[in-house]
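Retry 2 of 3 after timeout on previous attempt. Resubmitting structure tokens to design endpoint.
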């Protein structure tokens, strides 16, 4: 094997063992990953910056490499990149499954269709594209059901639903987590769940591990650990193994690895899903080798190179346990005891994925864990006891709600921006006057029933945890200079939007380089909105809007705010209603118009068929006496809510968390963009600072909604009056 070259797709924590094992085998490792700073990229012999999901890009990169050096195999471990692996293998003539079969093992709908055709035991299901279809599926299936994206992993977007009242939220959540937009509704399978690894070579299927999965935190499906080997009865395990083998044959997987989630129900084993790869969750790399002495990844690499697996005979019979650290929610002040946990006999690995300053939330998918511990023992009880001791030895100190404040973030940002005179406005507290909120009084209700608060909704066809959009300040380029690279800032915004399930706006500021940066940043996120400066001719606007759409923006916008700055030396491009309509009709995603100053503008925008109106404060411009956002909303937006199906996005110049945001919703907005305070948070503490700001806003919103007796953020003119 020495001197041979293998491509490994992915460089994350779960792929690092594969890279290391390949190198121990004497192989030259070529590693593809989008994150140049991933640990696996640093230890690779030949790192290449290519997204694991970019099938075409990976094929092009592999073909280019094959012109320079001979490639002998391609593999992935623990990540959903089997289609990429198959495409590269097919393109280079390497051992691998057909692309269409790998795709069927990656798309849960295609998978279920193949299982149905081949009578593989599975739950009843319906593929759905919209809410109406999801509701129809719910009516025809036994309850409860599971709503899930067709093409994602790690339990992202997956939710158990028992009531039709929750279908909309579950559908929106699943759709926003699906790269293709495909969603599936299936009957819930009740019973223990097994995680099974198998290897496939020369028409023979080898069983290489059966573990008990521990799933908690309903209505979500969070794997909080697994135990190897399974403690289920032999007959039930054999049934599960046979069902998985039938599933592998139905998917036409001929070579490589397969990982199955198999449910053991009262009616027998059923397939949850089968992936064309080795398992993640530390099973193939850690718990199976610890339990049996078999180097599973080494055998999988041998198959990827076209050779039979060399050594699958267990060398011992032990029990290995993986458990996840889930210390609660809040901000981490400190983490202690890691070294003490590692010193415990039987503890093999302690992975801590978080650090002081990170925000922990109640998990809704398998990526939101604080860390993991791996242990081994002679018996099941011994391995579990060691794992529990290790968990107890590690102390996550979290701030409680009272300890979470904005003051520290603001103080750090002020220190960083002390020399920036053009940033002084960021810290002024007279936001009520700037936004016009001082013109209104809001009257809480003292006596009312406590209602369930629901902040989740849909914005621009995306599920959001709260109707908040992170936006950039108007003079970002000048203020951020010397403090942070704009590329880093834009990445912080998009990462935060993804982690917090909100949206983020990236502005091009009429700068071609910034536009290209915006395009690169939003790729693959589906939570990015690109706003184009409107001071361009029709052709440039249309070209940029189309490019943003092509690269995955969930919405685009045109900003006409420049019109208010009469001191500008730039040529002014004024758009007619007809010209605007022509542009909008050529874009298939929602189009937002920013810089609205009058009801006449609103009428013209509506006639031009825009999907959103972005009300922004105009105090920063030369023209004076213009209406404030609050006044425009209270007088005009409520009419649009009543008469048009228009998605309204209201920007507050500097709404403070919770209270001011709440006021805008009661005045008629259905989304609020946070600008100044989001910038302060990001400059202060980076991504974690911005995540904290969004988290704090959610807490404050929930508090104020309780005080006012509001269950949702909808226009309500009964609780405010104009002064």
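Retry 2 succeeded. Sequence:
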């Amino acid at each position: 094997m020495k001197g041979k070259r293998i491509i490994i797709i992915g460089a994350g924590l779960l792929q690092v063992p594969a890279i290391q094992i390949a190198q121990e085998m004497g192989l030259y490792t070529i590693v593809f990953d989008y994150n140049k700073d991933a640990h696996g990229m640093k230890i690779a012999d030949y790192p290449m910056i290519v997204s694991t999901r970019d099938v075409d890009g990976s094929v092009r990169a592999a073909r280019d490499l094959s012109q320079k050096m001979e490639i002998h195999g391609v593999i992935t471990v623990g990540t959903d990149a089997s289609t990429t692996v198959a495409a590269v293998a097919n393109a280079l003539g390497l051992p691998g499954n057909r692309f269409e079969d790998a795709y069927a093992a990656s798309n849960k709908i295609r998978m279920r269709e193949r299982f149905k055709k081949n009578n593989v035991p599975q739950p009843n299901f319906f593929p759905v594209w919209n809410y109406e279809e999801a509701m129809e599926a719910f009516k025809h299936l036994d309850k409860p059901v599971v709503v899930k994206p067709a093409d994602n992993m790690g339990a992202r977007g997956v939710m158990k639903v028992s009531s039709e009242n929750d279908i909309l939220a579950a559908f929106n959540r699943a759709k926003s987590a699906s790269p293709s937009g495909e969603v599936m509704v299936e009957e819930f399978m009740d019973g223990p769940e097994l995680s099974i690894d198998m290897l496939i070579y020369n028409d023979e299927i080898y069983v290489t591990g059966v573990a008990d999965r521990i799933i908690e935190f309903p209505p979500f499906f969070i794997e909080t650990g697994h135990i190897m080997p399974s403690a289920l009865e032999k007959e039930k395990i054999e049934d599960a193994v046979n069902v998985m083998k039938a599933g592998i044959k139905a998917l036409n997987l001929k070579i490589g690895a397969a990982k199955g989630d198999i449910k053991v129900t009262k009616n027998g084993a059923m397939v949850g899903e089968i992936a064309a790869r080795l398992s993640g969750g530390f099973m193939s790399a850690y718990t199976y080798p610890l339990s049996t002495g078999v180097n599973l990844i080494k055998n999988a690499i041998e198959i990827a190179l076209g050779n039979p697996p060399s050594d699958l005979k267990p060398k011992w019979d032990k029990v290995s346990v993986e458990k996840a650290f889930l210390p609660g929610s809040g901000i981490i002040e400190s983490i202690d005891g890691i070294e003490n946990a590692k010193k415990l006999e039987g503890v093999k690995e302690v992975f801590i994925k978080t650090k002081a300053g990170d925000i922990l939330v109640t998990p809704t998918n398998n990526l939101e864990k604080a860390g993991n511990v791996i242990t081994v023992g002679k018996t099941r009880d011994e391995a579990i006891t060691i794992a529990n001791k290790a968990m107890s030895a590690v102390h996550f100190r979290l701030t409680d709600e009272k300890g979470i404040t904005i003051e520290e973030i603001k103080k750090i940002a002020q220190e960083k921006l002390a020399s920036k005179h053009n940033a002084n406005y960021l810290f002024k507290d007279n936001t009520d006057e700037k936004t016009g909120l001082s013109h209104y009084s809001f009257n809480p209700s003292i006596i009312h029933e406590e209602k369930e608060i629901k902040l989740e909704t849909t914005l621009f066809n995306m599920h959001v945890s709260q109707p908040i959009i992170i936006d950039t300040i108007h003079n970002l380029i000048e203020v951020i200079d010397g403090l942070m690279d704009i590329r880093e800032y834009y990445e912080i915004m998009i990462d935060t939007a993804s982690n917090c399930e909100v949206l983020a706006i990236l502005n091009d500021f009429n700068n071609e380089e910034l536009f290209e940066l915006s395009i690169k940043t939003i790729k693959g996120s589906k939570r990015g909105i690109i706003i184009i400066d409107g001071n361009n001719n029709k052709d440039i606007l249309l070209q940029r809007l189309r490019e943003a759409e092509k690269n995955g923006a969930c919405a685009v916008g045109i900003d006409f705010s420049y019109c208010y700055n009469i001191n500008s030396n730039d040529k002014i491009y004024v758009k007619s209603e007809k010209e605007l309509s022509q542009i909008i009709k050529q874009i298939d995603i929602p189009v937002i118009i920013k810089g609205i100053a009058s009801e006449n503008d609103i009428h013209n925008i509506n006639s031009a068929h825009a999907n959103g109106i972005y009300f922004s404060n105009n105090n920063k411009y030369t023209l004076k006496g213009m209406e404030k956002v609050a006044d425009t909303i209270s007088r005009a937006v409520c009419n649009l809510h009543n008469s048009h199906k228009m998605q309204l996005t209201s920007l507050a110049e500097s709404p403070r968390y919770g209270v001011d945001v709440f006021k805008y919703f009661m005045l008629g907005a259905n989304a609020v963009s946070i600008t100044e305070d989001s910038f302060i948070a990001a400059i202060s503490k980076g991504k974690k600072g911005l995540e904290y700001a969004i988290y704090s806003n959610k807490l404050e919103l929930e508090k104020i909604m309780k005080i006012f007796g509001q269950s949702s953020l909808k226009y309500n003119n009964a609780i405010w009056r104009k002064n």
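Attempt log closed. The first strand starts at residue 5 and ends at 9.
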